[in-house]
Design a protein that fits this description.
With 394 residues, the protein is an alpha/beta fold. 40% of the residues lie in helices and 14% in strands. It contains 13 helices and 16 strands. The strands form 5 sheets. It has a 7-stranded mixed β-sheet with strand order 2-10-9-8-7-3-4, sandwiched between helices. It has a 3-stranded antiparallel β-sheet with strand order 11-16-15. Strand 12 and strand 13 form a beta hairpin. Bound molecules: pyridoxal-5'-phosphate (PLP). The site of pyridoxal-5'-phosphate has 13 residues, from helix 5.
Length: 394
């Protein structure tokens, strides 16, 4: 009944777990939700106020398909201020979130017969963005002890005549890993040598804790094939507003706009107006959120490392930890065998109402992803419960 295209994609595992948590909550269960991919803060008041002004002023109509000129200018100002990147409005497209932007870019650049490098563990949507174009995702290993930087021998061995693009995501979802300058430079050198399209998904760029963030395009003068994806979602707690933007070569940006114009018409007008305030208004709330996330990160990492047989590296960014739970695989809880990280994730849900996302959804069968976009109280409770449950796994 449905087109073959649909068979090439799988439902988002993270959205499925979020739906499961909402279902349990609706039944009155007191869930501890560690599956969320969004800040638990409200959108800052100045941004909400800007949206109200937009509505009161009648800014409620279609905008140009690729976004308003004013918001593109605001994105340029932000990219210069925070990322030292000099772009003009013709280098920018506004989309309905970073997800939409990444999807569009894959659609305009990749097709059947192409291969696109994705580093594993990967954000659940990357393989689907690539597969739906007809291209093939090619997975490259990373080093879990070193912020999930690439295994460069593996990367070299996976590049062929068919390789058309490479997707980089630092800080990363699901690992929280932030690559060193050296790792970025080495990756860029390989990608530029093979003339690949370089996608840099920087939606967590503001959420770094131990090192300043450097946008990948700042490492080279050869920017023509680099696309930088940023988003208002995580930085400004604006996930529901759906505003993301891409900076890149005007020809690619134009092609993305052509596709966008025939799919979504334009991003939400009110949200675009509010996004100007987000990008060029006060950034105080961002700093506040980052400090809170850092405290939680330290709490959750220490908590996991206090539990026997769990190893949790310190991620330098985003709001995820990705502990290694491999010790518990192939062991038993009562008479139930735990074969996979999904079994363990479901056990946490069933026995302790803790919602997580199994590592296998991200190509990492030895891990589970915990989002710490939740209170310190919830983190402490979760650690106590995980500790008690895991003691019973033999
Ligand atoms: N990229 C990564 C790595 C993400 O984790 C997400 C959201 O979870 C996105 C992109 C898309 O975010 P949005 O579409 O809300 O901008």
């Amino acid at each position: 009944m449905f087109s073959k295209r649909l068979d090439r994609i799988t439902p988002s595992a993270t959205l499925e777990m979020t739906a499961k948590a909402a279902e349990l909550k609706a039944q009155g269960v007191d869930v501890l939700n560690f599956s969320v991919g969004e800040p638990d803060f409200n959108t800052p008041n100045n941004i909400v106020a800007a949206a109200k002004t937009a509505m009161d002023s009648g800014f409620t109509k279609y905008t140009p398909g690729s976004g308003t000129h004013e918001l593109k200018e605001a994105a340029c100002e932000k990219l210069k201020r925070d990322n030292n990147l000099i772009y003009k409005p013709e280098n920018i497209i506004i989309s309905c979130g970073g997800k939409h932007a990444l999807y569009n870019a894959c659609q305009v650049l990749f097709e059947s017969g192409d291969e696109v490098i994705i580093f594993s563990p990967y954000w659940v949507s990357f393989p689907d963005f690539v597969s739906v174009t007809g291209a093939t995702p090619i997975y490259v290993d990373t080093n879990s002890n070193c912020q999930y930087e690439p295994d460069f021998d593996h990367l070299q061995s996976k590049i062929s005549d068919k390789t058309k693009g490479i997707i980089i995501n630092s800080p990363s979802n699901p690992t929280g890993g932030v690559w060193s300058d050296q790792a970025i430079k080495k990756t860029l050198k390989i990608a530029l040598k093979h003339d690949l399209w370089i996608f840099s998904d920087e939606c967590y760029e503001q959420l770094v804790y131990d090192v300043p963030f450097k946008s990948i395009a700042t490492f080279t003068d050869k920017k023509d094939k680099i696309l930088t994806f940023q988003s208002c979602s995580k930085t400004y707690a604006m996930t529901g507003w759906r505003i993301g933007y891409t900076a890149g070569h005007p020809e690619v940006i134009k092609a993305m706009g052509k596709l966008q114009g025939q799919s979504t018409s334009c991003p939400n007008a009110i949200a675009q107006y509010a996004a100007i305030e987000a990008l060029v208004g006060s950034q105080d709330m961002v700093l506040e959120m980052v400090n809170i996330f850092k405290t939680r990160r330290d709490l959750i990492v220490d908590g996991f490392n206090s539990i026997d047989h769990i190893f949790c590296d310190i991620p330098k960014g985003a709001f995820y930890v990705f502990p290694d739970i491999s010790y518990f695989l192939n062991k038993f809880y009562k008479s139930q065998k735990i074969n996979t990280s999904m079994d363990l994730s479901l056990l946490l849900l069933k026995e302790k109402f803790i919602v997580t996302v199994a590592g296998e959804c991200f190509g990492a069968p030895n891990n589970i992803r915990f989002s710490y976009a939740t209170s310190e109280k919830n983190i402490n409770q979760m650690i106590d419960k995980v500790s008690a449950l895991f003691k019973l796994i033999k």
